[in-house]
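yo

u said u wanted the structure for the complex thing, so here. seqs first:
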Amino acid sequence: MNDDPKISVRDFDFFYGAAKVLHGISLDIPARKVTALIGPSGCGKSTFIRSINRMNDIITDARGKGTILIDGTDVYGSDTDVVELRRRVGMVFQKSNPFPKSIYDNVAYGLRIGGMRNKRQLDDIIERSLTRAALWHEVKDRLHASALALSGGQQQRLCIARALAVDPEILLMDEPASALDPIATSKIEELIYELKDNYTIVIVTHNMQQAARVSDRTAFFMLGRLVEEGDKNTIFTNPKEKMTEDYVTGRFG
Amino acid sequence: MTANLRRRKIYSGIFETLCALAVVVALIPLAMILFYVIKEGFGALNLDFFLHMPKPVGESGGGMANAIAGTLILIGIAAAFAVPVGCLCGIHLSEYPGTKFSSIVRFAADVLNGVPSIVVGIFAYGILVLPVKRFSAIAGGVALGLLMIPIVVRTTEELLRLVPGGLREGALALGATRGRAVFSVIVPAALPGILTGILVALARVAGETAPLLFTAFNNRFWSTSLTQPIASLTVQVFTYAISPYDDWHRQAWAGAFLLVMMILALSILARLAVRRLERMNRS
Amino acid sequence: MTRSSDDRSFRIGTGAFAALVLLIVAGIAFELTRQSTLSIAKFGLKFWTTKVWDPVSGDFGALPFIWGTLYSSVLALLVATPIALGIAIFISELSPRMLRQPLAYLTELLAAIPSIVYGLWGIFVLVPIVRKVEIAMGAKPALGVGMLAAALILAVMVIPFTSSVAREILKNVPATQREAAYALGATRWEAIKVAIGFGRTGIIGAVMLGFGRALGETMAVTMVIGNSPQISASLFKPQYTMAAVIANEFTEAADELYLHALIEIGLLLFIITVGVNLLSRLLIWSTKRRAQTIVVIPVIVAEEVPA
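structre next:
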């Protein structure tokens, strides 16, 4: 197995206008593992994860400084194309955001804008993506029904399938289960566990039990700084920093 | 970058440029209209235009004094009729927003807003001209008022709803009756906004021509009688515009200039008031 | 007087004025029908399908006016819709933030200019330009006045209505929709298409609202369309519209049948515009509702800024 980190972040700062919201983040994210970012709300973890696929570019006045390397290539480098980058780095959001189209068309969206027209090929990939997202059996008989008719948990799995369809290497998940009930949440968590064999997963969560359940490595953010990161067990049972300990034991946050 | 991606990006660039172009395309007629109205109209404007009456056909000179006065009288009648009706209706809608009656009325106001002004003119003709067999300032003013009502209703309703609920409860808790609470606390709080809505409505109807053609009709002479036909800037501009005389064309432009300035002034005033309101609400 | 009875008198008092609005709309429908009975009784449905308009012999058919109204409005829509949507997209999705307000204000200024001023500009500026273009194209007839001039002026007049509603619709599309597209590797235009797709019913509503405006527009059209009741697909021939014939002939209608025929045209105009407006509002309303049922979690910058 390759020991080089999949994502390597060095001295990364982020600004919204004049406000500096991330301060010198340095972090290595290993391939084919789940890395959880935890911390109280407003700590910058969402901003950070959205910097990896440059989702923050669509906000005016937002800019990053420093380097984020994916497989050694700088995400913010001048020869990096943001459209290509985002195809390699899939993202699932806090609230499921299916398009008001059919289930099939949702999953096909990324493929179609990428120029795929072959019906057979589309069918194959859509089935595979929905299967991977553990949704196939629930929807295979109504692929052409509206995605908005699905339950909240199903919609979120559909969004995961949609992200998987374009075959990314990295999957970013920004609190993917925060709007779901416990049963739907556990399905998503199982799914994350299965997906990590094939994808590098970065997940933001403010639910510490969830981080403890799904992650291999955990990074603790606070006030825009990375306080501590390491193996999940170390962070949750034997953290180096007092602040981390206070947080994971529920003393604040 | 793959060829496919390059193509998509070019495509995106083309469409983004087309959108920017659309803005330019729409601003060209705006610029042209304002340019001609200022160029032709401002030059034709003089003191006579404001103070004198129209000259008979063929004689040059003269002004639109009667039409300017007529327009002011007409929008005065319109406001006198539409403001109380519109405001009280708006107050009702905001005080009882959920009732079936309110949703029907709201719907009717929307319908009225979409009725072509010339059709409203026919209605005013039917109820105010036909029975007395005479065109009158009243009929014209009512036609304009009917066009104002839906705008006043909706702005009043929306702005009253913005008044914090605490104010109303405060007044009611002090033992005020509902009507008292509304008129002594809620309406005053929303008053600048309501006045803005009235300004916007006035700006809209001041430029109306079609509903006046067969209600207020026109009058070559000075008249302030409400039961007689009355001249208006818009109808006068129309009459002059389709006439064959150069001097009248010049006066038509002058009239258009005056109209546009009046409407711009009203709408800028309204905009400033809105901005001030927003600032007040924010602080 | 007790509190509750006072409350009731307030409710009924203001309610009476609200009822007046209902009464006005019903009154318009009633008056228009009542004042066109002679024509309705004499011509029946034939009124809508025949094209003779002869006040002297008392023979009236409204088909040329209906044709002229629909044709000019559809042409206007063809020109106005892409421009209006382009403006809406530019202002809501592409323009730098500081340009948004001024551009929105300027385009809406188009709606504030009175119809009569459009008409004046049409007669003295637009028509001569159109005439030159027609001559250059070898069009016959090359009068300047006619369908083309009317459609162009109508297009300019409806642009602000369509674009401001479309802008409102786009503003209501949740940001998460665009994010979903971007995250899948969409280009900017592809993300915009997603937003348009989300708001498509409302955007159709915006276009219909513009259509309603064009149908009822009177003065500017009257001044440039040439006012000649003929049915022709020609862009260059003078034609006539429903609103224009009412404006031009109403005060000349010497006998009652003539007047009733004109008012019947007004009645149809009323019915069509009310129908078009209702449909458009329904579409706009249903889109706004959909935008609200999908809870918008805004990408609020402040939330992430540490205190």
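Residues 63-282 of chain B form a domain with the MetI-like fold fold (CATH 1.10.3720.10). The longest helix of chain B spans residues 3-44.
cya
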